[in-house]
Design goal:
Elements lengths: L23 E6 L10 E5 L9 E7 L9 E7 L10 E5 L10 E2 L11 E7 L23 E8 L13 E3 L9 E4 L5 E3 L27 E2 L3 E6 L15 E9 L4 E6 L7 E7 L6 E7 L7 E6 L4 E8 L7 E10 L11 E2 L33 E2 L20 E5 L7 E6 L1
Parallel strand pairs: 5-6, 8-9, 12-14, 21-22
Antiparallel strand pairs: 1-2, 1-10, 2-5, 3-4, 3-7, 7-8, 10-11, 13-20, 14-19, 15-18, 15-20, 16-17, 16-19, 23-24
Length: 417
């Protein structure tokens, strides 16, 4: 079961050792809902490569007197080889997420603190040994050569000392329950409850769940985590072309202008915001380079309106990591004045003037009589054809004006009754 842990002050450092790569750590699961029956670790390597003399070792703690370097698991894999798929799965006998190449029920997968997973050649230690007797981040008691290592982190800067050359986590305030190595060389955190995301004994799937429009994940006001390292390019370019894009769905909880930005991220980003459904998206706004090389766009929204946000990179190989930040800016209701005109599409565009104010905007060549409680739309024609703008389906007495270009444009037409 996932649980909070009592964390101790510690040194967060990488031990100064040299590693040679052959077999590598590729995937793990150390926690799950209910009883932990699916704990495993996966190695990757050349098909048929021998694992003779190589041990899988987990380093953790021994309570309040030792804050790292304690051997919690040590499994000698002598006599085994990397399987025909290019992997080797080490698990407990209760494992059902794939086929284990070696089972060992004596393994201890700690799931409530920082831990380090290692592949060590020539290891002669045993469970209970302290490989860092001074708790200084240096493995003074290590025997053998480290082939690969991974720090799995619950708390950065506190908790047990870790020794990995790579790291993953934390997952919120928890240690990652599962994770896997991607082609980019980075580790991806998997879902605590999503056991289907594990691919023990097969290639890891690092494609983000929100890699395309149909997989858009729910976003909220404030910071929403973003990492497009393993994302692909969807090809949606109705607003602007965004590469290696991620998708988010956001629903407004009030009538207000909302900003969507990646200004707190790293990289060179682009962003686009759409109305409508996947396959028939309508561009509401887009941006490139509003805050340095990062992006921000402001969209007027009404309470209950849902938009789809496409955020990604400027270049085909660009990486953007950080947050998509959504901010309620307040201000007039969308369309309540010309400056906040809402985007309209060909066909029906619902509107409600109940709470709107009267802008007083008029144009002598049309008609100077006020349009009360007015609402504004902006429309871009898709072809050089005559267009009609009508409120004939409304249930009130209406007036309508059409202006050219912008809020200072000339009147193109007017009607009352």
């Amino acid at each position: 079961m996932k649980s909070l842990s009592l964390l101790f002050g510690s040194i967060f450092v990488l031990a100064g050792f040299t590693q040679a790569s052959a077999q590598t750590l590729s995937e793990f699961r150390l926690d799950m809902p209910g009883t932990d029956t699916e704990e495993f670790v996966e190695l990757a390597g050349a098909v048929g490569a021998s694992l003779d003399g190589i041990s899988f070792v987990i380093l953790g703690d021994s309570g309040s007197t030792n804050f790292g370097g304690q051997v919690e698991t040590a499994v000698d894999m002598t006599g085994h080889v990397i399987n025909a798929n290019g992997f080797f799965v080490l698990a407990k006998s209760t494992f059902t997420l794939g086929v284990a190449d070696l089972t060992d029920d004596g393994m201890s997968f700690e799931n409530s603190d920082n831990v380090t997973y290692m592949l060590i050649s020539g290891f002669t230690g045993a469970v209970g040994d302290d490989l860092d007797t001074t708790d200084d981040g240096i493995l003074d008691g290590l025997t053998g050569t480290i082939i690969d290592s991974l720090s799995i982190i619950e708390s950065i800067g506190s908790g047990d000392i870790v020794y990995g050359s790579q790291s993953i986590g934390p997952d919120g305030s928890f240690v990652p329950a599962t994770g896997w190595l991607c082609d980019s060389g980075s580790w991806m955190i998997g879902g605590f409850s999503d056991l289907a995301g594990n691919t023990a004994g097969a290639d890891n799937d690092c494609t983000p769940s929100n890699d395309d429009c149909a997989g858009a994940i729910s976003a909220s006001a404030g910071a929403n985590a973003m990492d497009n390292t393993e994302a692909t390019t969807s090809g949606e370019a109705t607003c602007t072309s965004v590469n290696k894009d991620l998708w988010y769905a956001f629903t407004a909880t009030s009538d207000a202008n909302h900003s969507f930005d990646t200004c707190a991220a790293s990289g060179d980003s682009k962003i686009a915001v759409f109305d409508g459904a996947c396959g028939s998206l309508v561009c509401l706004g887009s941006n490139d380079d509003s805050c340095g090389l990062l992006s921000s766009v402001t969209i007027p929204m009404v309470n209950g309106q849902t938009v789809l946000v496409q955020a990604g990179a400027w270049s085909a190989t660009g990486v953007v990591i950080g947050d998509l930040t959504i901010t309620n800016l307040g201000g007039p209701a969308p369309g309540d004045d010309c400056g906040t005109a809402a985007a309209a599409v060909l066909g029906a565009n619902p509107f409600d003037t109940t709470a709107n104010t009267t802008s007083g905007l008029s144009e002598p060549s049309c008609n100077t009589a006020a349009i009360h409680n007015d609402t504004f739309f902006t429309y871009t024609a898709g072809a050089a054809l005559d267009h009609s703008f009508a409120t004939c389906g409304a249930d009130i007495d209406t007036k309508i004006r059409v202006y050219d270009v912008d809020c200072a444009g000339a009147c193109l037409g007017y009607n009352d009754d």
